[in-house]
Design brief:
single chain, 848 residues, alpha/beta, seven-stranded mixed sheet, five-stranded parallel sheet, elongated
Length: 848
């Protein structure tokens, strides 16, 4: 009886209450707001170091559970660091006049990218007006006419010289649509006179004289030879004319070649004239751009190409200026302000919430026109890595790894430190497609990824490059030590949160409840939870309840109500199980005492809620050599950790009872009315208590539920979920009414983990419920049965009236009975032979 009292815990040990006096305020209105992160000194040190290192590969992976402040702290620190850094260069894409398929990337000082785009557009408009005005000037027309006149004079002289030379050869050169034709010339009568002088016998005589009039002698002229005249010539004469014609043709070709050269020279001179005029117009306009954006060699080279292209296409400018309705494409002279930075904002901090491939690396957009797809350098759009260039990029590991090709693209950029825009269709398509290939941009950024420990270690195992590109690990803890300073930091966090979110102020009592709730989340009286998203949920919900009641500040009762409401919303399954217990469907005895039966405590873990539920364990023992058998294990319903705990039971029995004789026992242990998988060793001590009860034939109090694992030496070891288990059994006992004898027995190491609800602590305070902590199996079995465990004497025997003595006696009796039974069976199979009777000795004859 004394052990039960000694191992029972007082209600003060079941929950560590916040000391409101140490907080030193009445409401959070007077509390200084929290700046920075609390309870994460290791992570803060790692982040600061990682941000200070500028070398390649020193990117940061923030490891921690959701709600520990990883993302918000990362943004805060990155923005703080970015303000101390200069703004990076702007980047623009421009038309490549040498290769239109490879747009050029040009960097400019921060803030100048958009300025250049505007200046380039204005320059084009100025060029339209200035070129039109320049070419409408009379001086240009006069100079051009003079050049044409000089050319014409040269042409006329060449043609005249050719004509004279051909006449010397008695040939005429005639221009036809098919080209020049050489015609031989002869001295003969004109063709008309020749026809008139032809003999005509039918012509009547003149009436006056009756005689023919005398005809004048015809004049001879140099004229073209007719075909019939040529045919009348001798063959030698025809050959001579043919040879002369060929000579004239060669001379004509030479002359025409000279004319073409002169014509080409004329075009060059006209072009040079136009170029001079264009340059005179272009240079003053472009010189302003050169001066504004110098020194920039790449930009100056592009302006040179820009100028030459304008000169080559000045007619388009003239046409556009003369007729505004004429559609002329001047897009090649535009500037795509690809990435723009504000020079006063420092380095960029980009948080990419949807890291699909194109959002990271950028893309080339296409436009549909009449069923065809078109694009140009103006439709190159940046990705988040372009916008973070020179600064910081923040990513969520889970979102990043979920997207196709995003992780590979990020690694490629961090390795090569340059970024090329490539559409996925080009990488994965089976048919090569012609598209733009923008010039790659050098990338210098620090990447910060936020992820869980599970993802961090998966990447370490399966990606050999991970350690090379993410050399800094910032590990965020889910708990911190509970001290007066950390409790005050929680109060400051509450003050900052309600101030930022516009919530009601919290009283000191309400802050105390939040602190205690934080310890409950950490499941440790000496720790506080650092998953502030869970704390923030209670702040929001308790504020809402206070507002519904018309209060102007949040009191402790509203925090308790918010916690109860949160549990109520998720406890449907728990209530269903309690309902089946109250109706007798699930059998759990909370009164009386039973041999070989005990109440174990388990935790049912849902996604958003966990709760404790008792399970009835039973044990049957009998003679045999099979040892301890768990029925659930036989049907493969248990996990490896649970199976390990079961094997420890056999080892414990051997150590305690099989030092002088072999352990000969068969036992069956079962978790009654359990139809799902079982894992964990927190019921191993419970199974052992049940087994000892069955062997000793001593009943166990059903009003006490047990949890705890055990080692081979009989020491009880700590378990998890102790608060859920105690509260779960309390609710079961409460259904049928508390008797004042019910309670839970836990390992003594779990005392510091107790942060029980106010309802349970109040019941313990009133003596309606009890909590015991034990160190060994001997202490536990004594509390459960009320019988001493017993200590082995020097002779190796336990007291007969102790638990161990009863167990030892049971095992010894089984051994003896087993031996007798074995001998009896053996005798039936092979009966022992009766011993032969001894023959009487013959008496020796007496000598006479």
């Amino acid at each position: 009886m004394s052990l039960i009292k000694d191992r029972e815990l007082s209600f003060e040990k079941l929950r560590r209450s916040a000391d409101l006096g140490l907080l030193g305020f009445k409401t959070t209105k007077s509390v200084e707001k929290l700046e920075g992160l609390i309870g994460q000194e290791r992570a803060v040190h790692a982040v600061n170091f990682g941000l200070s290192v500028k070398s390649k590969g020193y990117n940061i992976f923030m490891v921690g559970e959701p709600g520990t402040g990883r993302t918000s702290y990362a943004m805060q620190e990155l923005q703080r660091m970015a303000k101390t850094m200069p703004a990076p260069d702007d980047w623009v894409y421009v038309y490549n006049f040498d290769d239109m398929g490879m747009p050029l990337a040009i960097n400019l000082p921060a803030g100048r990218g958009k300025e250049l785009a505007k200046d380039a557009a204005n320059a084009v408009e100025e060029l339209k007006a200035a070129l039109s005005k320049a070419f409408e000037n009379n001086e240009y027309e006069d100079n051009k006419a003079q050049l044409v006149k000089s050319f014409q004079e040269v042409v006329n002289k060449l043609m005249e010289d050719l004509r004279v030379w051909a006449e010397g050869k008695k040939f005429a050169i005639k221009r036809t649509p098919q080209g020049f034709v050489n015609l031989p010339m002869i001295m003969a009568k004109p063709l008309k006179e020749a026809e008139d002088s032809a003999p005509n016998a039918d012509k009547p005589a003149t009436p006056e004289s009756g005689e023919e009039e005398p005809q004048e002698e015809p004049k001879l002229v140099l004229r073209e030879m007719q075909q019939d005249e040529f045919e009348k010539l001798s063959q030698a004469e025809q050959d001579a004319l043919q040879k002369a014609s060929e000579e004239i043709s060669q001379k004509t070709l030479i002359t025409l070649r000279l004319i073409r050269e002169r014509e080409k020279d004329l075009k060059e001179r006209i072009k040079e004239l136009e170029s001079q005029i264009c340059r005179g117009v272009i240079e003053p306009i472009l010189s302003e751009l050169r001066a504004k954006y110098k020194p920039n060699k790449k930009f100056e080279d592009w302006l040179d190409d820009f100028s030459e292209d304008v000169i080559s296409n000045f007619n388009a400018f003239l046409e556009s200026a003369r007729d505004e309705n004429t559609e002329v494409d001047f897009s090649r002279y535009e500037v795509n302000a690809f990435v723009s930075n504000n020079p006063n904002d420092g380095a960029p901090v980009i948080k990419e919430t949807n890291p699909i491939y194109y959002n990271l690396v950028g893309k080339v957009e296409y436009e549909s026109k009449q069923g065809n797809w078109y694009t140009d350098f103006r439709r190159i759009t940046p990705g988040s890595m372009h916008r973070a260039n020179g600064g910081f990029l923040l990513l969520e590991a889970e979102e990043l790894l979920r997207q196709f090709m995003s992780w590979d693209a990020l690694k490629r950029v961090l390795r090569s430190r340059e970024l090329s825009i490539e559409n996925l269709g080009e990488q994965l398509g089976y048919v090569p497609v012609s598209s733009l290939r923008p010039e790659a941009i050098p990338i210098d950024m620090k990447v910060v990824i936020v992820g869980t420990p599970y993802l961090y270690y998966l990447l370490n195992i399966y990606d050999p490059e991970f350690q090379k590109i993410f050399k800094i690990k910032a590990d965020f803890d889910t708990e911190m030590k509970r001290t007066p300073e950390s409790e005050m930091q929680i109060a400051r966090f509450i003050a900052g949160y309600v101030g930022h979110e516009g919530k009601l102020n919290f009283s000191a009592g309400a802050v105390g409840e939040i602190i205690e709730y934080s310890s409950r989340l950490a499941e440790d009286q000496n720790k506080l939870c650092t998953q502030f998203n869970k704390i923030a949920d209670i702040l929001v919900e308790s504020t809402a309840l206070a507002k519904l009641s018309g209060k102007k500040q949040v009191g402790a009762s509203y925090v308790r109500s918010a916690i109860d409401e949160k549990i109520f919303r998720s406890s449907l399954l728990e209530e269903k199980i309690l309902e089946e217990y109250s109706e007798g469907i699930i059998r759990i005895d909370t009164t009386g005492a039973v041999i070989g039966q005990i109440n174990a405590l388990t935790v049912l873990q849902l996604v958003d809620y966990s709760f404790g539920s008792p399970t009835r364990i039973t044990a049957n023992v009998f003679m045999g050599q099979e040892g301890v058998v768990n029925i659930e294990r036989e049907v493969k319903m248990t996990g490896p950790i649970h199976n390990k705990g079961l094997m420890i039971l056999t080892s414990y029995l051997g150590r305690m009872y099989a030092q002088d004789f072999p352990l000969s026992v068969s036992a069956r242990i079962a978790f009654e009315q359990t139809y799902g998988g079982i894992e964990g060793d927190s019921a191993s001590s419970t199974e052992l208590y049940c087994l000892l009860s069955a062997l000793a034939e001593v009943p166990i109090k059903q009003s006490i539920a047990v949890t705890g694992s055990v080692d081979q030496f009989g020491f009880v070891q700590p378990i998890g979920g102790v608060n859920d288990k105690i509260e779960g059994f309390f609710r079961y006992c409460k259904v049928l009414g508390l008797t004042g004898e019910q309670g839970v027995m836990i390992p003594h190491q779990n005392e510091r983990h107790l942060m029980l609800s106010h309802e349970v602590t109040e019941a313990v305070k009133k003596g309606k419920f009890h909590i015991w902590s034990v160190r060994t199996i001997d202490e536990g079995i004594e509390i459960l049965t009320g019988v001493k465990a017993g200590t082995k004497s020097k002779s190796g025997q336990y007291p007969k009236d102790s638990i161990h003595g009863k167990v030892q006696a049971c095992l010894e009796s089984w051994i003896e009975r087993g031996c007798r039974h074995k001998k009896k069976i053996q005798d039936k199979i092979d009966p022992p032979k009766k011993p032969a009777k001894a023959k009487p000795k013959k008496k020796a004859a007496k000598k006479k």
